[in-house]
Amino acid sequence: MTQKDPAKDAAVSKEPLSPQEREALVVAHADLVRSVALRISMRVPQSVSLDELMSAGSLGLLDAVDKFDPEKDVRFRTYAQFRIKGAILDELRSMDWYSRSLRKKAQDVEKAVLSVERALGRPAEDVEVAEAMDLSLESYQDVLTEIHGAALLNLDASIRDSEGENGGGKTFQDQLIGTDNPEEKLAEEELKARLAGIIATLSEKEQMVLSLYYFEDLTLKEIGEVLERTESRICQIHSAALVKLRARLRGMTVDV
Known about the structure:
The protein is mostly helical. It folds into two domains: 6-95, RNA polymerase sigma factor, region 2, helix turn helix motif (Rna Polymerase Sigma Factor, Chain: A, Orthogonal Bundle), CATH 1.10.1740.10; 100-249, PhyR, sigma-like (SL) domain (Butyryl-CoA Dehydrogenase, subunit A, domain 3, Up-down Bundle). It contains 14 helices and no strands. It has helices at 6-13, 19-28, 30-41, 50-67, 76-95, 100-120, 126-132, 137-146, 148-167, 172-175, 182-199, 204-215, 220-227, 231-249. Helix 3 (30-41) crosses helix 5, helix 8 (137-146) packs across helix 14 and helix 13 (220-227) crosses helix 14. It is globular, with a radius of gyration of 20 Å.
């Protein structure tokens, strides 16, 4: 006998999920919580336990079940993955697990990028940012490796801030899900357009890393295998791309 798909059934009937269907949906996607948490655990300090990430992810799954709209053109599993990731990132942000010194380093890199791009009127190269920071290219790349996690969380926070009241305090991922509110829908489309334009200013290599990381959901190690680079080098490329995105998204650079 074929197992019922509560999300599909709800889409057909357009009726709210029954308690039994809700429970079935949670159970059917419990593996997704562990999968997302495991991937994120590879990117954070060992002091952050997998159990903590899974606990936050479970709340994200429950939130997805409660808020899923079957009339929208999106699969439940896709929607749930966004909610789970967003919940875990929110939990990491609340832990404040990156030291003040690391956040300061991330800010210093961003300021250097801004300075170079304002002076040259074009996207900054790594060697130019390193020179602006009075560092060798190798030392600059070491800094990029060190600040990777901070840059990851800072980008999401920066996107929230840039949206002001329209963002409503939602995470970047939440804003890309969609809404029935016309004003929020317009803000969402504008955000996507801005991001697409900013991403287009990155190097081909940086765009490839972002695509594989966020859309193909590959780990840094897996991306390194695809691009025939070390995991450390991919981490550096990813960090550099995040810093540039953050700076340009906040509108603090010249048009590039």
